[in-house]
Amino acid sequence: MTCWTSLNPFNVIQELKKFAEDNPYQFRFAIRFTPIEVCVSTDLERIVKASQELLPRISEDESYRVTVRSRHTALKNMQVIEAVADVIPRKVNLDSPDKTLWIEIVGDTTGISVLQESKDILSIMTLRDDTY
Q1: Is the distance from CB of 108 to CB of 40 less than 8 angstroms?
Q2: Total-model pTM
């Protein structure tokens, strides 16, 4: 499920996190929330271009990794990772990156964000484990 908002998606995640800490069982069906900064059509060139436009969010001294989650597309995850990594002049760290270039492909639409996974992604299951 996707949701469009006119609000800052990172702020939405933080507000959801605050609400979920007090009400974790209100989230029975939606259990993971990932903010998306840019949406483009699912085309490799457009994905690469949008990824390049987010490059300033990864400073030169930070490491990164590319994570692709895809459904209902002919694009292969490694095909996307290789194309994007070729244009990102930053140090790659697959185990413990400072930032993650998150690419979420769902059919004809692709969402892209630069995330600090532990801070920017809300997982209700992880929150429950930490809370209880």
Answers
A1: no
A2: 0.88
- Residue 14: exposure state from Cβ atoms within 10 A (0-12, 13-18, ≥19): middle
Residue type, position 109, single letter: T
Distance from C-alpha of 44 to C-alpha of 92, rounded to nearest angstrom = 20
1 part of a folded domain: no
Confidence of residue 129 (pLDDT cuts 50, 70, 90): low
Q: How far is Cα of residue 24 from the mean position of the Cα atoms in its chain? A: 22
25: CATH:
3.30.2130.30
- Tell me if 73 sits within 8 A of 48, measured CB to CB: no
What is the number of structural domains in the chain? Answer: 1
pLDDT grade, residue 19 (50/70/90)? very high
Half-sphere exposure of 108 (CA within 13 A, CB side): 0
